[in-house]
Amino acid sequence: MKPNILKEERNGWPAQARPDRPLPAPWTPDLVVGIDPMHHHALSPDGAWMAFIWGREGNNDLWLARTDGTGWPGRLTFDRPAQSPWSDASPHWSPDGRWLVYAKQGDIWATSTAGGKACRLTDDGRGNSSPIFSPDGQRVYFLSSRREFNNLWYTTLAGEWPVALTHFEADVADPQPSPDGQTVAFVYHPQTDFDRSEICLVPVGGGDMRHLTGLPGVWDMHPRWSPDSRHIAFRSNRTGWLELYLFDVASGATRQLTTGCADVRDFDWHPDGKQIVLVVNRRGSGSLHRLDVDSAELQMMCAEPGWHSLPQWGPDGRWLTVEFQSPIQPPDVYRFVPETGEARRLTFAPPPALQAAPMVMPEFVQYPSIGPSTIPAHLFRPPGASPERPCPAVVYPHGGPIDEQTLEWETLIQWLVAKGYAVLTPNYRGSTGYSLAHQHALYGNWGIVDTEDMLAAAEYLTRLGWVDGERLGIMGASYGSYLAVLALARDPRYRYKCGVAQYGDCDILGSWAQGDRPGREDLERQMGHPATNRAGYRAGSPVYDVSNIRFPLLIMHGSQDQRVDPKQSEQLVEALKREGKTFEYVVYEGEGHGFLQKGNILHCYATLGRFLDWYLL
After folding, report:
1. Which CATH architecture has domain 36-147?
2. Is the Cβ–Cβ distance between 370 and 411 less than 8 Å?
3. For the residues of 138-196, what is the DSSP string, one character each?
4. pLDDT tens per residue, range 210-237
5. Could you tell me the CATH superfamily of domain 5-32+363-616?
6. How far is residue 303 from each of residues 280, 288, 341, measured CA to CA in Å?
């Protein structure tokens, strides 16, 4: 598999590999790109089948498997392009189980579960997404940005001309038709407050909108109907955590269901309407719980360290399917029986070579930053690291910044640990999962408090007896890339000896102008409009501090990135050239915000490994 490189440039560093640093067994390049994760499964109405997305052969196609664990998965589509799991979505079943609808390249498609050629239901390619059937199977609701903003539309399996149900000058999301077929719930994002989202209803035939919730600076999201259509459960951060609430459609009353000072993630109503299965996030571990709706009593179902997602009850309510992954296990789908605790694996992502590889579970740690701030993180310690043989370490901040490093599978981390690096993944100020106050601490402070947290991470590692504080690097992608550049440019003590920046910003004012609308609005949500905070945008841009960089940078970008324009890396490289700094720069043809082509991933890993080995080992 050859890489598709548009541009490759070096300045002042030896590009050859170190002959004394072979890849540790069994972490060959083939294994690194040979793990094909399965994700976004959807249970059929009768519970006998599940559809899921399988990232393999350069595609993200739909597959079908039995939920009793027998047989071999069958492939339903053959041409759905690869995309990152965080930007993908589950297919949706028709009520009779004969069809699946899904999004592909900006249009809505349907495929028969019996096989055959998929048919396209829309043909404008204008960001159509989130298809879902009406309860009678006669309509397919979906979102479309054909009028700039995402609004709610519907069509039919025959591909009839779409009809708009909403006409907002703002985005809507997550359409959910009521089981009685009368209304559709959705999430509305007003343009007047980027930190606000509301749950709304619209009649299935169109008409007056009903705003069920809505508070300044509050996110209400993820509406899910009770089986009898009388209630809507939803998540809201109105207490400072993403907790679960219940809305009574008839009375308009809202009741808080969880009070655990922890974020609720995915959830699903039991068929009897009396309980809900939900995922609760504590310290980056998404454990599975069952909630009694009347009493609000929460019961643990599965606490294995890792991340559960998309739990879905079977039709009789005696079992459910759920996806699970952990730092030592790629994602798979399981059939789980709550009464016995039995979990049967339905998919098998890890190849035997990976199952035989030694892997490391991280330790949850907290380290002090500037002032009273404490930063939660996960620390991966390689076997053999000791005060007698201290190891190098890499700080690996996540992207976002509205995101979180959780106990999920990430090949790159285990690969680095196998090579002998400790890895620290900080949930710096701005991260989710640790209260709204922790998240909002970054507002107006891009490049300031987050940089403090990165420098504090280096200080923390230096104090560990088994880490060599003179061999620290920092790397990241997207916002993590931005932090890597900041840490090298704004540390007067030069604690990081190299940095890796993958498709990140360097000039956030330029990025605001160059990027797509969701990225621009996300930046305005946290930093305000440039017209009112020009000084803050400049203060948050490390490109103006390139002269302070002392150690090498590896910069990587995709030529088709719409979230962070490749011009951001070009601007950084030009500044590095002017100052005579050491760097390597690679642009991969055809890649967007994240690398998906296996040849490019192989080249990325090889280049990254060579770079870190040269400067840290």
Report:
1. 6 Propeller (2.120)
2. no
3. S-EEEEEEEESEEEEEEE-TT-PPPEES---SSEEEEEEE-TTSSEEEEEEE-TT-TT-
4. 999 999 999 999 999 999 999 999 999 9
5. Alpha/Beta hydrolase fold, catalytic domain (3.40.50.1820)
6. 10, 6, 11
